[in-house]
## 1
Amino acid sequence: MPELPEVETVRRGLTNLIIGKVVKSETHDTEKGFPNTPQDVKQFLIGASIVDVRRRAKVLMIDLSTGYSLLIHLKMTGQLVFVGETRFGAGHPNDSLVNELPDKSTRVTLDFEDGTKLFFNDQRKFGWVRLLPTAEIPNIPFMQKVGPEPLSADFTAKDFIQRLARRPKTNIKAALLDQSVVAGIGNIYADESLWGAKIHPTRLVSLLTEAEMTLLYTEMRAVMNLAVEKGGSSNSTYVNAEGKKGSYMDFARVFRREGLECPRCGSIIEKSRVAGRGTHTCPVCQVI
DNA sequence: CACTTGACCTGTCCGC
DNA sequence: TGCGGACAGGTCAAGT
């Protein structure tokens, strides 16, 4: 599920739900999704309290009182689901989860001292959780190469244009998906941003005008801001850590709207494959 | 080097 | 209904 807006929504939810809680025990299924040793877990996780929940790009960081952090990447299908028996009223979407979790997609479970739990579920097993010293997070390869946060106040159109210029011979969709250019954009918001800027995803970066790149910068930020405000995008079954559904898909202009009318010009939206990903475009108002 | 493709996994949907 | 193949909101390694 997660691009920047979804991960940010999870971060905000967890901030409300788990800060101050003390970890009582932890279980995980395989080393692949959680490579730390039992000794690491015992020394740096068990008994620790949650100090902060942060995000960089699509990576979540749960900072612990031991000076270590849990780094979490949800990849395609990861979810963090908080279950606190007293938190949800009758009929709430999370009520059933109290009894249904853990299930076969559960990779990691954190049990807190107060009886509440946090589950990391991941159907496709691409995601991961790892424990490492908080101070070492900036040194991991991903953090070394990842680009700026698109919504940060000091990220300018000029920065964006300069970073795009490093990928002149690839198409603009691949460049937007490249986390070293800008952090946090994924398949949904790449398509939505390019529609907003009336640029076809297959266009070579070197063929974009400065005006187009400036407009793309503006549209990308508008899309990301709206998506964060709406709690991200959710499929029919997903609920976030707080049991709320994201509603951005109600506002999507092209993503998963193939066969429907373009909201700007009325042409029929097409689906194709660009940069190895399913791609949604208006064939008329997005210029190749 | 820059860029593209395949691999990692499981579940679901769609066409025969 | 059964089966095969394509596909799914990401990233890295290996290939050209």
## 2
Amino acid sequence: MLTKAPRGTKDILPAEAERWKYLEKQAAEVCRLFGYAEIRTPVFEHTELFLRGVGEVTDIVAKEMYTFKDRGGRSVTLRPEGTAPVVRAFLEHGLAAEAQPLKVYYLGPMFRYDRPQAGRYRQFHQFGVEVFGSGDPTVDAEVMVLALTFLRRLGLTGFSLHINSVGCPACREAARNCLREHLAASLGQFCPDCVERYDKNPLRIMDCKLERCRELTEGAPVMLDNLCPPCAEHFREVREALTALGEQYVVDSRLVRGLDYYTRTAFEIVSADLSSQSICGGGRYDHLLKQIGGPDLPGIGFAVGMERTLLAMEAAGIAPPAAGKPEVFVATAGSVPGREALKTVMELRLSGLSADKDYLGRGLRAQLKAADRKGAKLLVILGDEELSRGQAVVRDMQSGRQETVPRAELTERLARLLREC
RNA sequence: GUGGGUGUAGCUCAGGUGGUUAGAGCACCAGAUUGUGGCUCUGGGGGCCGUGGGUUCAAGUCCCAUCAUCCACCCCA
């Protein structure tokens, strides 16, 4: 128990941390190119923010939040998603006064009390972007392309973009009623989950994975058929923008997202490498800011699951660049004390070379073995004879070539050798 | 929340029908080589066999419970 990470969490060990750093760097670089600035918000917020922002009847809020009272009696919640906190920060700091639209990105841990399984954790990480202040269809296309660009940059190819429009509150309500009417007669034949969805979120019935339910919904009126003229026009322009950019996409009229705040454009990127699990989800939320108490500004964003991205890369056999190896290992021989090695190592480090040494008082043989395992490129040997003559042995670990150099010239010599290899 | 699989060394796993001091490979440490890595050989350290209870003369092995973990559903990234 004491030596076990809590359920649904995991340690990112040094080897894997290198891969995370790589992903984070790629995300930051893509955002720089697209003109998105980073924003960092707290990992916990007032519980009320998520109740209002995400929606009280959503699964995320109803049964997956880490909510607790702090010592002052306030109810706070570990953020289950990134959009509501970013909206809150936008409103709190009056960022509406800055040049519009505002384009930001975030990257960090999210928390959901869920049963863990492949690609699903209780603490997981999302990279996401948000755009506030523009309802323009080209923004919809831009954020989708941003996500696609990020994935491509990592070398992933086995994914596809699925898009849909869930309309505005007005036409969505009309579509819901229309669908309920259509399904009312056959409701008894659906699975229990779908019967529950009938009242809660009937559009989701269209998204059921059971074949029987799928068959029952054949010919049912889909959201896209019930869009009001402005929403239909918006969706058409989003598709045209994607096409103009040469992006392939699938219009999936069954696609419904689980968060209440979405309007109009909804999209997912699913990965073939993860048996079609979604790796990214997002959409437009034109009334969320007002709902949280701000101006009636439109917004849009997405979130990419970092763990899932890493899993997809692994499944596709993509290996991020290897970790940096130490450049120099300093060994001692004979009766030379360890502090001589430490002195040399420090000189090298302060001149910009990464250097390391043995800390277990091991023999020369074991020190070479250690240097080899760490992947050091060069080895310095400080022995009694060399030391008394003010020299040191420099060995190229790959070729095994050795030379004796004056200690005064050691740093310079090592730097030159490293440049050559 | 529902359903299924699996828990033996740091890792991957052996341990027919219960039977003495629980094994292998990899990894780790040391030696062969008293000052020279990768290969090889030799030796060594490491295990409440997930936990608790039950059956039995005897349980890693059988039964029950529990916890953990993985997979799927639900939901979502």
